[in-house]
């Protein structure tokens, strides 16, 4: 699993309004709009509900420790969405205890393995990997003008790709999975097929071949430059949650507005909206 570096996130806070406008140009929806779509919630409902809840981001020193500006950036994204959010004054157990005793409704915190939002009332946990997969799948649905009935290639079958594949299947896409570990792709196929009985899921074995006949790509690998310039076609749409970006700089330039990528924003936005859902339900 990739550990975020300060350089991956240092630009985010001062750039949120521009980033959200950029997403609107690329997908027709703002950062909040994409997160709401990923959770099956309309924006008005989110805006009404969020007035009731406060979120505390607790820095965690365990493992490799604090990432400079990580907690501040998460809180800035939450505040940008209109949530009441703050960073705990203290870290770890003391921070959690203080947030709980101070009456916060939810926590967000990350160690080296997991980044979670915990709803302290509903006892519901949302994982960043799951939220990120769903958020980028929603962005791809929007870039495609509706993914129902379309062929989509999911590259990378870790937790992010698996969650993205699940949402794409629930939206009626014909999903193809590719992972360098074929067994991981088979497992995701089984899980998603079990969940969405009507899902039409294939396994692909060869990257270049699969990219040659897919227009809609969810690039969820943790590898650099999986998609290079030679593999980009004119009408391709790519949602790329992977860190580092799995699209080469040449490919990114060719894709231009047809590429959505970020390191934290969409995942955190989906985690935030998930805190205000009774349960995640997507029907379109
Ligand atoms: O970057 C990470 C992990 N790779 C998990 C990401 C899940 N997609 N964790 C962030 C660690 C933050 C640190 N403990 C802090 O500053 O609180």
Describe the structure.
With 284 residues, the protein is α/β, with parallel strands linked by helices. The protein folds into two domains: 135 residues, Rossmann fold, CATH 3.40.50; 129 residues, Rossmann fold (3-Layer(aba) Sandwich), CATH 3.40.50.720. The chain is built from twelve helices and eleven strands. The strands form two sheets. A six-stranded parallel beta sheet has the order 8-7-6-9-10-11. Strand 4 and strand 5 form a beta hairpin. The two termini are 32 Å apart. The mean pLDDT is 94. The protein binds N~5~-D-ornithyl-L-ornithine. N~5~-D-ornithyl-L-ornithine (2YH) binds next to helix 5 and helix 7. The site of N~5~-D-ornithyl-L-ornithine has 16 residues, from helix 5 and helix 7.
Corresponding CATH architecture of the largest domain: 3-Layer(aba) Sandwich
Compounds present? N~5~-D-ornithyl-L-ornithine
**In one word, what is the shape?**
globular
Structural class: alpha/beta
Radius of gyration: 18 Å
Provide the helix percentage. Answer: 40-55%
Number of DSSP strand runs: 11
Number of helices: 12
Poorly predicted regions: none
Number of domains: 2
- Side-by-side strand order of the widest sheet: 8-7-6-9-10-11
How confident is the prediction overall: mean pLDDT? 94
Biggest sheet architecture: 6 strands, parallel
As for the CATH topology of the largest domain, it is: Rossmann fold
Distance between the termini: 32 Å
Q: Briefly, what CATH class of the largest domain?
A: Alpha Beta
Relative strand content: 15-25%
Order of helices and strands: HHHHEHEHEEEHEHEHEHEEHEH
């Amino acid at each position: 699993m990739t550990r975020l570096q300060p350089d991956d996130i240092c630009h985010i806070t001062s750039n949120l309004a521009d980033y959200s406008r950029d997403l609107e140009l690329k997908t027709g929806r703002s950062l909040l709009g994409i997160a709401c779509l990923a959770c099956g919630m309309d924006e008005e409902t989110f805006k009404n509900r969020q007035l009731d809840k406060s979120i505390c981001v607790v820095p965690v020193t365990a493992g490799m420790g604090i990432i400079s500006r990580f907690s501040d950036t998460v809180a800035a994204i939450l505040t940008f969405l209109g949530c009441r959010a703050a960073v705990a004054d203290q870290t770890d157990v003391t921070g959690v205890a203080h947030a709980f005793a101070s009456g916060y409704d939810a926590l967000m915190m990350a160690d080296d393995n997991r980044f979670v939002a915990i709803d302290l009332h509903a006892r519901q946990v949302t994982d960043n990997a799951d939220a990120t997969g769903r958020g980028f799948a929603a962005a791809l649905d929007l870039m495609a003008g509706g993914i129902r009935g379309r062929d989509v290639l999911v590259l990378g079958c870790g937790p992010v790709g698996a969650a993205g594949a699940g949402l794409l299947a629930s939206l009626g896409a014909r999903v193809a999975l590719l992972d360098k570990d074929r067994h991981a792709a088979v497992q995701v196929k089984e899980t998603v097929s079990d969940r969405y009985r009507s899902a039409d899921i294939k396994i692909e074995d060869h990257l270049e071949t699969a990219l040659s006949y897919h227009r809609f790509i969810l690039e969820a690998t943790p590898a650099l430059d999986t998609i290079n310039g030679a593999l980009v076609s004119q009408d391709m749409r790519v949602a790329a949650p992977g860190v580092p970006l799995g699209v080469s700089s040449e490919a990114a330039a060719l894709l231009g507005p047809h590429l959505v990528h970020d390191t934290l924003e969409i995942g955190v936005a989906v985690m935030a909206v998930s805190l205000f859902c009774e349960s995640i339900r997507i029907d379109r």
